[in-house]
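Memo to structure team: turn this sequence into structure tokens by end of day. - J.P.
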Amino acid sequence: MVELSPGTVKASRASVVRLMLPTEANFMGNVFGGAVLAEIDRVAYVAASRHAKATCVTASIDRVDFIAPVHIGDLVDFDAVLTYVGRSSMEVWVQVRSAGIRGGRSKLVVEAFVTMVALDEDGRPTPVPPLLLETDEERRRFEEGRRRMEARKRSRHAS
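Reply from structure team:
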């Protein structure tokens, strides 16, 4: 088996900035939650595939907290970082911040945890490199992520 070189949280971090358009609005004039979720999924994919150096698929999205509405015309930052890496799966934490186009203070509007799985050329789960933890904060997040992954597995097996 080939030894995989560890990757850092910084090396896989992904960010996207989007201008929210009227085509993404619900009848209240706010951005559809589904439009925000789609962008969360994309930015999580980028972070996971950077780390895995492989194609990745979404296994789960959980703990999606819609904290505040996103409005048409807002500039929205999607920031994704790896928090935990298993054998073939990775947990990606995505924070979404929004600010008006004319400025103003950026506010946290959504947080989500996305589990991505790396796939080989045949579409089967494939091992990913270990995550090199450089700070106490990264070590804390890794341990929290490990506990969440274990809880997900228990939940899947229980149902």
